[in-house]
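Example record used in the benchmark description.
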Amino acid sequence: MAFGINKRELENWKQQAQKEEIALITHFWYDPKFPHYHSVTKAANSNVNKLAEWGLQYGLKPEWIHHRDPFPHFDLLGEKQVQVLKEEGKYSQIERFCLNLK
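Model output (structure tokens):
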């Protein structure tokens, strides 16, 4: 379940992904399988090949892609989440969701 984002942010993420751009959106999240994480970043692109190619630069394996039409995406957690957000210049998401890991 997603918390901490609004409809406009979600729509912007969808539009960016549909334009075959890498779309990143972070939201508060809880999954009992990962109780030590409080947020997830979804990296999406409607072109799964472009998404897989983009992910390789961060060590993300193509088999980790969630094939959910129309928005295939990677779920980024923890240190990898922070690394990707920093390298993509998404500092506002790091601050907003308290992801300043040491």
